[in-house]
Amino acid sequence: MYDAGIPFNAVNYESFGPMIEAIGQYGSSMKPPTYHEVRVTQLKKEVKHTEDLMRNHKEDCAKYECSIMADGWTDKRGRTLINFLVNCPRGTMFVESVDASSYSKDGQKLFELLDKFVEKVGKENVVQVITDSAATNVLAGRFLEAKYEHLYWTPCAAHCLDLMLEDIFKIPRLKKTFERGIAVHDYIYNRPTLLNMMRRYTNLKNLIKPAKTRFATAFLTLSRMHQQKNNLKKMVTSEDWTSSKWAKEPQGKRMAQTLLMIFEIIDKRWDVQLHQPLHAAAHFLNPEFFYPKALEVQKDHEVMNGFYECMQRLVSDVNVQDLITDEMSIYMKAESLFGQSVAIRQRNTRAPGNIL
Q1: Looking at residue 68, which CATH number applies to its domain?
Q2: Within the chain, where are the H helices?
Protein backbone atom coordinates (compact mmCIF):
# COMPACT_ATOMS: atom_id res chain seq x y z
CA MET A 1 0.00 0.00 0.00
CA TYR A 2 2.83 2.40 0.85
CA ASP A 3 4.81 1.51 -2.28
CA ALA A 4 1.87 1.88 -4.67
CA GLY A 5 0.23 4.81 -2.92
CA ILE A 6 -3.05 2.94 -2.36
CA PRO A 7 -5.43 4.98 -0.13
CA PHE A 8 -5.53 3.61 3.41
CA ASN A 9 -9.34 3.49 3.44
CA ALA A 10 -9.12 0.63 0.93
CA VAL A 11 -8.94 -1.69 3.95
CA ASN A 12 -12.50 -0.59 4.82
CA TYR A 13 -13.94 -1.84 1.53
CA GLU A 14 -16.24 -4.84 1.85
CA SER A 15 -14.13 -6.62 -0.79
CA PHE A 16 -10.85 -6.25 1.08
CA GLY A 17 -11.46 -8.95 3.71
CA PRO A 18 -12.69 -11.62 1.25
CA MET A 19 -9.71 -10.84 -1.01
CA ILE A 20 -7.19 -11.44 1.80
CA GLU A 21 -9.05 -14.60 2.83
CA ALA A 22 -9.11 -15.92 -0.76
CA ILE A 23 -5.37 -15.31 -1.17
CA GLY A 24 -4.66 -17.13 2.09
CA GLN A 25 -6.85 -20.09 1.14
CA TYR A 26 -5.13 -20.44 -2.23
CA GLY A 27 -1.74 -20.80 -0.56
CA SER A 28 1.85 -19.93 -1.27
CA SER A 29 1.72 -21.18 -4.87
CA MET A 30 -0.62 -18.39 -6.01
CA LYS A 31 0.76 -16.26 -8.83
CA PRO A 32 -0.24 -12.59 -8.98
CA PRO A 33 -2.21 -11.44 -12.02
CA THR A 34 -0.30 -9.86 -14.88
CA TYR A 35 -0.77 -6.27 -16.01
CA HIS A 36 -2.71 -7.51 -19.04
CA GLU A 37 -5.00 -9.70 -16.93
CA VAL A 38 -5.86 -6.87 -14.57
CA ARG A 39 -6.28 -4.36 -17.39
CA VAL A 40 -8.17 -6.55 -19.87
CA THR A 41 -9.16 -10.10 -18.90
CA GLN A 42 -10.30 -9.59 -15.31
CA LEU A 43 -11.71 -6.15 -16.08
CA LYS A 44 -13.97 -7.62 -18.77
CA LYS A 45 -15.17 -10.26 -16.31
CA GLU A 46 -15.97 -7.57 -13.74
CA VAL A 47 -17.80 -5.50 -16.33
CA LYS A 48 -19.84 -8.57 -17.27
CA HIS A 49 -20.62 -9.21 -13.60
CA THR A 50 -21.73 -5.59 -13.16
CA GLU A 51 -23.91 -5.78 -16.27
CA ASP A 52 -25.57 -8.91 -14.88
CA LEU A 53 -26.34 -7.07 -11.64
CA MET A 54 -27.74 -4.15 -13.61
CA ARG A 55 -29.84 -6.49 -15.75
CA ASN A 56 -31.60 -7.83 -12.64
CA HIS A 57 -32.11 -4.28 -11.44
CA LYS A 58 -33.59 -3.22 -14.78
CA GLU A 59 -35.97 -6.19 -14.72
CA ASP A 60 -37.20 -5.12 -11.30
CA CYS A 61 -37.64 -1.54 -12.54
CA ALA A 62 -39.85 -2.81 -15.34
CA LYS A 63 -41.79 -5.08 -12.98
CA TYR A 64 -42.25 -2.86 -9.92
CA GLU A 65 -41.47 0.64 -11.36
CA CYS A 66 -38.78 2.90 -9.96
CA SER A 67 -37.58 6.36 -8.93
CA ILE A 68 -34.84 8.44 -10.55
CA MET A 69 -32.69 10.38 -8.09
CA ALA A 70 -30.60 13.36 -9.20
CA ASP A 71 -27.93 14.30 -6.64
CA GLY A 72 -26.21 17.60 -7.44
CA TRP A 73 -22.89 18.67 -5.93
CA THR A 74 -19.93 20.96 -6.62
CA ASP A 75 -16.40 19.59 -6.94
CA LYS A 76 -13.12 21.29 -5.98
CA ARG A 77 -12.84 22.80 -9.46
CA GLY A 78 -16.20 24.54 -9.05
CA ARG A 79 -18.02 22.31 -11.52
CA THR A 80 -21.69 21.52 -10.94
CA LEU A 81 -22.03 17.75 -11.24
CA ILE A 82 -25.22 15.69 -11.05
CA ASN A 83 -25.16 12.00 -10.16
CA PHE A 84 -28.13 10.08 -11.55
CA LEU A 85 -29.30 6.96 -9.70
CA VAL A 86 -32.27 4.62 -10.03
CA ASN A 87 -34.04 3.15 -7.01
CA CYS A 88 -36.43 0.18 -6.95
CA PRO A 89 -37.22 -2.60 -4.42
CA ARG A 90 -33.93 -4.32 -5.33
CA GLY A 91 -31.97 -1.25 -4.23
CA THR A 92 -30.23 1.77 -5.73
CA MET A 93 -28.14 1.67 -8.92
CA PHE A 94 -25.78 4.39 -10.15
CA VAL A 95 -26.45 5.31 -13.79
CA GLU A 96 -24.28 8.24 -14.80
CA SER A 97 -22.59 11.45 -13.63
CA VAL A 98 -23.15 14.58 -15.73
CA ASP A 99 -21.28 17.90 -15.78
CA ALA A 100 -24.17 20.39 -15.66
CA SER A 101 -22.05 23.51 -15.06
CA SER A 102 -23.19 25.27 -18.23
CA TYR A 103 -26.92 24.98 -17.58
CA SER A 104 -27.44 24.33 -13.85
CA LYS A 105 -29.38 27.62 -13.60
CA ASP A 106 -31.56 26.96 -16.64
CA GLY A 107 -34.87 25.23 -15.83
CA GLN A 108 -35.55 24.29 -19.45
CA LYS A 109 -32.12 22.70 -19.89
CA LEU A 110 -32.46 20.78 -16.62
CA PHE A 111 -35.87 19.55 -17.74
CA GLU A 112 -34.31 18.28 -20.97
CA LEU A 113 -31.59 16.52 -18.94
CA LEU A 114 -34.10 14.88 -16.59
CA ASP A 115 -36.29 13.97 -19.55
CA LYS A 116 -33.33 12.24 -21.20
CA PHE A 117 -32.86 9.99 -18.18
CA VAL A 118 -36.58 9.24 -17.92
CA GLU A 119 -36.43 8.03 -21.53
CA LYS A 120 -33.20 6.15 -20.85
CA VAL A 121 -34.62 4.27 -17.87
CA GLY A 122 -37.97 3.81 -19.61
CA LYS A 123 -40.76 6.36 -19.20
CA GLU A 124 -43.26 3.59 -18.49
CA ASN A 125 -41.11 2.44 -15.54
CA VAL A 126 -40.58 5.76 -13.74
CA VAL A 127 -42.97 6.77 -10.95
CA GLN A 128 -41.06 9.76 -9.60
CA VAL A 129 -38.00 11.92 -10.20
CA ILE A 130 -36.28 13.28 -7.09
CA THR A 131 -34.07 16.39 -7.04
CA ASP A 132 -33.29 19.11 -4.51
CA SER A 133 -35.75 22.00 -4.29
CA ALA A 134 -33.71 24.72 -6.01
CA ALA A 135 -35.91 27.02 -8.13
CA THR A 136 -34.58 25.69 -11.44
CA ASN A 137 -35.26 22.10 -10.34
CA VAL A 138 -38.79 23.03 -9.29
CA LEU A 139 -39.41 24.47 -12.75
CA ALA A 140 -37.86 21.44 -14.46
CA GLY A 141 -40.01 19.19 -12.30
CA ARG A 142 -43.20 21.01 -13.32
CA PHE A 143 -42.26 20.63 -16.99
CA LEU A 144 -41.64 16.93 -16.37
CA GLU A 145 -45.04 16.40 -14.72
CA ALA A 146 -46.72 18.25 -17.56
CA LYS A 147 -45.14 15.93 -20.14
CA TYR A 148 -45.70 12.66 -18.23
CA GLU A 149 -49.13 12.42 -16.64
CA HIS A 150 -48.22 9.33 -14.61
CA LEU A 151 -45.01 10.75 -13.12
CA TYR A 152 -44.27 12.84 -10.00
CA TRP A 153 -41.45 15.28 -9.42
CA THR A 154 -40.52 15.12 -5.73
CA PRO A 155 -38.15 17.43 -3.83
CA CYS A 156 -35.43 15.70 -1.81
CA ALA A 157 -36.62 15.24 1.78
CA ALA A 158 -33.12 15.70 3.24
CA HIS A 159 -32.66 18.98 1.37
CA CYS A 160 -36.11 20.15 2.41
CA LEU A 161 -35.40 19.38 6.06
CA ASP A 162 -32.10 21.25 5.80
CA LEU A 163 -34.00 24.27 4.44
CA MET A 164 -36.41 24.02 7.37
CA LEU A 165 -33.48 24.24 9.76
CA GLU A 166 -31.96 27.09 7.74
CA ASP A 167 -35.24 29.00 8.03
CA ILE A 168 -35.30 28.36 11.76
CA PHE A 169 -31.84 29.87 12.14
CA LYS A 170 -32.98 33.02 10.29
CA ILE A 171 -35.29 33.97 13.16
CA PRO A 172 -33.43 36.73 15.07
CA ARG A 173 -33.61 35.19 18.54
CA LEU A 174 -32.78 31.72 17.25
CA LYS A 175 -30.00 33.11 15.10
CA LYS A 176 -28.62 34.74 18.22
CA THR A 177 -28.97 31.46 20.13
CA PHE A 178 -27.17 29.65 17.34
CA GLU A 179 -24.34 32.20 17.33
CA ARG A 180 -24.03 31.90 21.11
CA GLY A 181 -24.02 28.13 20.89
CA ILE A 182 -21.25 28.17 18.31
CA ALA A 183 -19.31 30.64 20.46
CA VAL A 184 -19.66 28.30 23.47
CA HIS A 185 -18.54 25.34 21.38
CA ASP A 186 -15.52 27.18 19.95
CA TYR A 187 -14.55 28.61 23.32
CA ILE A 188 -14.49 25.18 24.98
CA TYR A 189 -12.96 23.19 22.13
CA ASN A 190 -10.12 25.66 21.64
CA ARG A 191 -9.00 25.10 25.24
CA PRO A 192 -7.92 21.47 25.79
CA THR A 193 -7.89 21.71 29.59
CA LEU A 194 -11.38 23.22 29.65
CA LEU A 195 -12.53 20.56 27.18
CA ASN A 196 -11.36 17.85 29.56
CA MET A 197 -13.23 19.57 32.40
CA MET A 198 -16.42 19.65 30.30
CA ARG A 199 -16.11 15.97 29.47
CA ARG A 200 -15.86 15.12 33.17
CA TYR A 201 -19.18 16.86 33.79
CA THR A 202 -20.92 15.47 30.68
CA ASN A 203 -19.78 11.87 31.18
CA LEU A 204 -17.42 12.08 28.18
CA LYS A 205 -20.19 13.35 25.88
CA ASN A 206 -19.10 15.78 23.18
CA LEU A 207 -21.17 18.81 22.18
CA ILE A 208 -20.79 18.47 18.44
CA LYS A 209 -22.83 15.84 16.60
CA PRO A 210 -21.98 15.58 12.88
CA ALA A 211 -24.69 15.06 10.25
CA LYS A 212 -24.86 14.85 6.46
CA THR A 213 -25.94 18.48 6.00
CA ARG A 214 -24.55 21.71 7.44
CA PHE A 215 -27.68 22.98 9.17
CA ALA A 216 -28.52 19.50 10.45
CA THR A 217 -25.07 19.42 12.09
CA ALA A 218 -25.69 22.83 13.62
CA PHE A 219 -29.13 21.85 14.87
CA LEU A 220 -27.99 18.54 16.34
CA THR A 221 -25.06 20.27 18.00
CA LEU A 222 -27.41 22.76 19.68
CA SER A 223 -29.70 19.89 20.62
CA ARG A 224 -26.78 18.08 22.24
CA MET A 225 -25.92 21.26 24.15
CA HIS A 226 -29.53 21.51 25.31
CA GLN A 227 -29.43 17.88 26.49
CA GLN A 228 -26.30 18.65 28.49
CA LYS A 229 -27.68 21.93 29.87
CA ASN A 230 -27.83 20.77 33.48
CA ASN A 231 -24.35 19.27 33.37
CA LEU A 232 -22.94 22.43 31.79
CA LYS A 233 -24.63 24.49 34.52
CA LYS A 234 -23.06 22.28 37.14
CA MET A 235 -19.69 22.80 35.54
CA VAL A 236 -19.83 26.62 35.48
CA THR A 237 -21.04 26.75 39.10
CA SER A 238 -18.43 24.32 40.35
CA GLU A 239 -15.25 25.21 42.17
CA ASP A 240 -13.33 23.85 39.19
CA TRP A 241 -14.81 26.62 37.09
CA THR A 242 -14.95 29.50 39.58
CA SER A 243 -11.31 29.01 40.50
CA SER A 244 -10.20 28.84 36.87
CA LYS A 245 -8.90 31.70 34.75
CA TRP A 246 -11.73 31.20 32.23
CA ALA A 247 -14.40 32.21 34.75
CA LYS A 248 -12.92 35.71 34.76
CA GLU A 249 -12.85 36.10 30.97
CA PRO A 250 -15.74 37.96 29.25
CA GLN A 251 -16.28 35.11 26.79
CA GLY A 252 -16.47 32.59 29.62
CA LYS A 253 -19.20 34.62 31.32
CA ARG A 254 -21.30 34.73 28.15
CA MET A 255 -21.63 30.99 27.65
CA ALA A 256 -25.22 30.19 26.66
CA GLN A 257 -27.07 26.94 27.12
CA THR A 258 -30.54 27.48 25.65
CA LEU A 259 -32.08 26.13 22.48
CA LEU A 260 -35.50 27.20 21.21
CA MET A 261 -37.48 25.66 18.40
CA ILE A 262 -40.46 27.02 16.39
CA PHE A 263 -42.51 24.41 14.51
CA GLU A 264 -44.54 26.79 12.33
CA ILE A 265 -41.56 26.96 9.97
CA ILE A 266 -41.54 23.19 9.59
CA ASP A 267 -45.24 23.18 8.71
CA LYS A 268 -44.73 26.00 6.21
CA ARG A 269 -41.85 24.26 4.44
CA TRP A 270 -43.83 20.96 4.44
CA ASP A 271 -46.89 22.57 2.83
CA VAL A 272 -44.93 24.53 0.23
CA GLN A 273 -42.42 21.92 -0.87
CA LEU A 274 -42.21 18.52 0.72
CA HIS A 275 -45.79 17.24 0.77
CA GLN A 276 -46.74 15.23 -2.31
CA PRO A 277 -49.67 12.85 -2.99
CA LEU A 278 -47.02 10.14 -3.41
CA HIS A 279 -45.96 10.66 0.22
CA ALA A 280 -49.57 10.42 1.38
CA ALA A 281 -50.10 7.18 -0.56
CA ALA A 282 -46.88 5.73 0.90
CA HIS A 283 -48.04 6.66 4.41
CA PHE A 284 -51.41 5.01 3.84
CA LEU A 285 -49.94 1.83 2.34
CA ASN A 286 -47.20 1.36 4.94
CA PRO A 287 -48.54 -1.07 7.60
CA GLU A 288 -46.14 0.32 10.20
CA PHE A 289 -47.79 3.75 9.97
CA PHE A 290 -51.35 2.76 9.05
CA TYR A 291 -52.43 0.09 11.54
CA PRO A 292 -51.50 1.75 14.86
CA LYS A 293 -53.81 4.66 13.94
CA ALA A 294 -56.02 3.10 11.27
CA LEU A 295 -59.20 5.03 12.10
CA GLU A 296 -57.30 8.28 12.45
CA VAL A 297 -55.57 7.80 9.09
CA GLN A 298 -58.85 6.94 7.33
CA LYS A 299 -60.35 10.20 8.62
CA ASP A 300 -57.32 12.23 7.58
CA HIS A 301 -58.42 14.16 4.50
CA GLU A 302 -54.87 15.01 3.45
CA VAL A 303 -53.73 11.37 3.49
CA MET A 304 -56.79 9.86 1.83
CA ASN A 305 -57.11 12.58 -0.79
CA GLY A 306 -53.41 12.16 -1.60
CA PHE A 307 -53.84 8.41 -1.95
CA TYR A 308 -56.74 8.72 -4.40
CA GLU A 309 -55.00 11.47 -6.37
CA CYS A 310 -51.86 9.32 -6.63
CA MET A 311 -53.86 6.26 -7.68
CA GLN A 312 -55.64 8.18 -10.45
CA ARG A 313 -52.36 9.58 -11.75
CA LEU A 314 -50.42 6.30 -11.71
CA VAL A 315 -53.25 3.97 -12.79
CA SER A 316 -54.93 5.14 -15.98
CA ASP A 317 -57.31 2.17 -16.37
CA VAL A 318 -60.55 3.01 -14.54
CA ASN A 319 -61.39 -0.68 -14.18
CA VAL A 320 -58.14 -1.26 -12.32
CA GLN A 321 -58.90 1.80 -10.19
CA ASP A 322 -62.23 0.26 -9.23
CA LEU A 323 -60.54 -3.04 -8.35
CA ILE A 324 -58.08 -1.21 -6.09
CA THR A 325 -60.81 0.66 -4.24
CA ASP A 326 -62.84 -2.56 -3.88
CA GLU A 327 -59.89 -4.33 -2.25
CA MET A 328 -58.91 -1.42 -0.01
CA SER A 329 -61.30 -2.62 2.70
CA ILE A 330 -59.33 -5.88 3.00
CA TYR A 331 -56.20 -3.88 3.78
CA MET A 332 -57.92 -1.36 6.07
CA LYS A 333 -59.69 -4.06 8.10
CA ALA A 334 -56.54 -6.26 8.22
CA GLU A 335 -58.38 -9.18 6.67
CA SER A 336 -57.08 -12.14 4.61
CA LEU A 337 -53.25 -12.16 4.44
CA PHE A 338 -53.03 -8.80 6.21
CA GLY A 339 -54.55 -10.41 9.29
CA GLN A 340 -52.14 -13.35 9.46
CA SER A 341 -49.96 -13.43 12.56
CA VAL A 342 -46.74 -13.33 10.54
CA ALA A 343 -47.92 -10.23 8.67
CA ILE A 344 -48.93 -8.52 11.91
CA ARG A 345 -45.62 -9.43 13.54
CA GLN A 346 -43.58 -7.96 10.68
CA ARG A 347 -45.46 -4.69 10.27
CA ASN A 348 -42.72 -2.75 12.03
CA THR A 349 -39.74 -4.81 10.91
CA ARG A 350 -40.14 -5.36 7.19
CA ALA A 351 -40.19 -2.59 4.60
CA PRO A 352 -43.28 -2.71 2.34
CA GLY A 353 -41.12 -2.82 -0.79
CA ASN A 354 -39.37 -5.97 0.44
CA ILE A 355 -42.65 -7.86 0.43
CA LEU A 356 -42.71 -7.78 -3.37
Answers
A1: 3.30.420.60
A2: 16-26, 35-36, 42-64, 107-121, 135-147, 157-168, 172-189, 192-201, 214-227, 229-236, 239-242, 250-253, 264-269, 277-285, 287-290, 294-298, 301-314, 318-332, 341-345
